[in-house]
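TA notes, week 10

Several of you asked for a full example with nothing omitted. So below is the full record: structure tokens for the whole chain, then the designed sequence directly under it. When grading your own attempts, check the secondary structure regions first.
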């Protein structure tokens, strides 16, 4: 591009060497994958293995059925979750992470660690207002 000295750890290749957010930038792709209220919590619950809609509702009781349905559809569209209809009566639906969805595990772990690091800082700032 130009004569910019890129930090090779932060930006190891040309994919992120941009001056504006680009949809194919790896960081933007990762952020888009986990975007949306409740998305990280739904992903977290599915990290332990397939769950039915009812099991997800039980694990996230404050999450409405409508929002859960919306999040699951979005995650399916992003190819992070797959839905399987199970035989029987009543018909049950199971949701499981795809390999792409499971690839988000290290990101979620690091976000949690970073949040723990930042939490004391945010408490300091909120107490001074």
């Amino acid at each position: 591009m130009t004569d910019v000295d890129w930090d090779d750890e932060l930006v190891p290749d040309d994919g992120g060497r941009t001056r504006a957010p680009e949809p194919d930038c790896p960081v933007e792709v990762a952020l888009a994958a986990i975007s949306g209220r409740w998305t990280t919590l739904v992903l977290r619950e599915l990290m332990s293995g397939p769950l039915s809609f009812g099991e997800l509702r039980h694990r996230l009781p404050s999450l409405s059925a409508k929002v859960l349905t919306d999040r699951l559809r979005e995650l399916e569209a992003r190819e992070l979750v797959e839905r399987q209809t199970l035989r029987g009566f009543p018909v049950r639906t199971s949701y499981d992470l795809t390999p792409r969805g499971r690839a988000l595990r290290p990101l979620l772990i690091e976000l949690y660690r970073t949040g723990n690091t930042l939490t004391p800082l945010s408490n300091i700032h909120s107490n001074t207002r």
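The first strand starts at residue 51 and ends at 52. Use that as a sanity check on your answer.
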